[in-house]
Structures are given as C-alpha cells and as structure tokens.
Hints:
Structural class: alpha+beta
InterPro entries: LSM_dom_sf, MS_channel_1st, MS_channel_C, MscS_archaea/bacteria_type, MscS_beta-dom_sf, MscS_channel_2nd, MscS_channel_C_sf, MscS_channel_TM-2
Shape: elongated
Largest sheet: 5 strands, antiparallel
Strand content: 15-25%
Helix content: 40-55%
Domain Mechanosensitive ion channel transmembrane helices 2/3: 66-105
GO molecular function: mechanosensitive monoatomic ion channel activity
Family: Belongs to the MscS (TC 1.A.23) family.
Distance between the termini: 121 Å
Subcellular location: Cell membrane
Radius of gyration: 34 Å
Amino acid sequence: xxxxxxxxxxxxxxxxxxxxxxxxxxxxxxxxxxxxxxxxxxxxxxxxxxxxxxxxxxxxxxxxxxxxxxxxxxxxxxxxxxxxxxxxxxxxxxxxxxxxxxxxxxxxxxxxxxxxxxxxxxxxxxxxxxxxxxxxxxxxxxxxxxxxxxxxxxxxxxxxxxxxxxxxxxxxxxxxxxxxxxxxxxxxxxxxxxxxxxxxxxxxxxxxxxxxxxxxxxxxxxxxxxxxxxxxxxxxxxxxxxxxxxxxxxxxxxxxxxxxxxxxxxxxxxxxxx
Length: 274
C-alpha cells in the first residue's frame, strides 16, 4: 500500500512538471527576449533624444521612467504566459499598487517633485545650484532623486520632493554674474586715492564685461577703518577663476601703491592721560 502511494505521488509530480514545463520554458524565453527588447528600446530612445536635442535633465528622467514601465509590462506578459488571468493579474496589481502607495508615500512625493522640477525647470543637468545648504553641479535627475557633484568630488543624492519644496539658488541660469570684492582701509587713506587704483585693476582683466562697467563705492564705516566694495560683471562660466584673479590683482595694485590693510587700534586711558 505504501509503495503504491509513493508511485502514485511520483506520477502526479512528474505529470505536473510536464504540464508546467512548457510554460516555464516560454516564460524564460519571454524574459530573455524582453530584456533584449528593453535594451534595444532604451538605445533607440537615447538616439532619439540626441537627435531631437532633448535636454539632459529630461533625458535622465524619461530613461528611468521608461525602464520602470517596460519592466512592468514584461512581468505582466510573463504572468499571462504562466497562466495568471488578466482580471486576476489586474486585481493583484491594483492591490499591490495600493499597498505600495501607502508604504511609499515619500517616494510618490519624490516622483511628483521630479515632475515639478521638469515642468518648471528651476535647474537642469549641468547647472550649479545651492539647495538645502548643498552646493554642486547637477549630475542627474531621476524619477525619485536628484544628484549633485560638489567641488570636492562628493556626490549628494537628494529626494526630489525635498528639492521641489526648497529654495533653489541657481548660479548658472543667468549668462553673467556680478563679482563683489570687499576691502578695508584706515581712515587716513583717502577714498579718492583707492578708487582709481581698484578700478584700474578691475578693468585690466580680459574677462570683465564692459557693460555694466566695474564700480567701487564706500560701503560702511567702522571703529578704525572704512569698508570699500568693488564690483564687476563676468560671464557665469568665468565667475570663480575671475573672482580669485581679481582679488589678487587688486591686492597687488594696492601693495604697489603703498596702501596697507588697516591694523586694529585701541586707545588706553591711564588716569586721564593717554
């Protein structure tokens, strides 16, 4: 009796395996073909993006979204091959969608934030931005995250939801930027003496824009010195190199004319005498 049941069980298992074997094989073939098709579609998308000159930020977003949708369709096809009915499959996806939506509310907010970033374009790939105390060049905008590369080589990944709801300082959106330099001088130094020296140094730089022209103004008065602000405009891509070069050029010009940085002074009274 026991050997009969064992043989019967083996027969049932073998029959079951033979029954599902074609579906398993078809599913594996469909998976392999689907992966190859997805890679081909993604290559064609990249060619189309380059041909129609789609901006990089939109490219990265559409690529990540397309991969998500294509793999979803592939798994749906595999489910149908295995034998899952379309109505059951839709019900499973619907229930899973609700569960995932409740579990990933933050991710959905990030997805919506990515849509807002692409729609209103506060920045794009390649822009230099400051957001949430992070400064860097935008490397990539995914469906959920934005990646920045800082000047010291770090990668910062920020959720799109937080970025979309934060103040974004885009430092490369405008074609030109203003350089502000501050200098302090002792009260004995005349403003009419330092102004032409600073302006001459600013105008000597080849990257400085002639319109608006560089200018220099008295900015504030301190206890023992006064502060001068010098300003000039340059193209955005030349901002930082020109900033450091202008700062050094003005310092050299002041040194050549014998104008020194003021030293803090205090008057000490002793018995009414000083």
